[in-house]
Amino acid sequence: MKPKAKPIAKPKAVPVTEEPLANTAELIHRLAFSQDNVMSAAAEQPVLFFQAAEYRIAIYRKYQSAKQEFGTVKAAVSLSIRQEFADKGEKTTEGAIEARTLLDENVNIAQHALQEAEAEEEASKLMLEAYRMRRDSLKVMMEWRGADLRAQQAQEFGSAAFNETRSNLERRYPKGL
């Protein structure tokens, strides 16, 4: 009697090396700010950006873990199929082995987990990019506010200088020109 082929590897749950430190929904909610709270939004921007970056790193690690797990499961299944053919003394092709590997339920489960991790990873990239855009928007709004303040100060200074010049001319020429 021939020895039985080794059992096909079952996918493990994709371990997350660390949980994201910030609540995703909260990070998304905090992206928005109004003109009324530009100063507070600017003050909290570094902390929120750091939290988004930590979230990105945690999701990237989850993605890498899922990618590794998929490769491991796929390789184990492929080796099991090869062993099965070797035990029977049959020959096969790489294409046939690849086809059977891709049809394996455990490979499909691991592949699905990888696809989900890829989607999360892409979303985390976009969230970090959104926080970069938020930073840039805050810079523009702060520059506008600064320009408005400088224009207001120039207008006030100009009005004061104009009034002073008018007073000097009225004193110098009380009856007009």
Please, could you describe this protein's structure?
The chain is an all-alpha fold and 177 residues long. It has one domain: Helix Hairpins, CATH 1.10.287. Helix content is 76%, strand content 0%. The chain has 4 helices and no strands. Helix 2 packs antiparallel against helix 4. Residues 14-21 have low confidence and may be disordered.
Question: Which blocks of ≥5 consecutive residues have pLDDT under 50?
Answer: 14-21
In terms of structural class, how would the helical and strand content be classed?
Answer: mainly alpha
Write the H/E string, N to C. Answer: HHHH
CATH architecture: Orthogonal Bundle
Q: Please give the count of helices.
A: 4
CATH topology: Helix Hairpins
User: What is the percentage of strand-forming residues?
Assistant: under 5%
Span between termini: 126 Å
How much helicity do the residues have?
A: over 70%
The largest sheet is: none
Mean pLDDT: 84
Number of domains: 1
CATH class: Mainly Alpha
Rg to the nearest angstrom?
33 Å
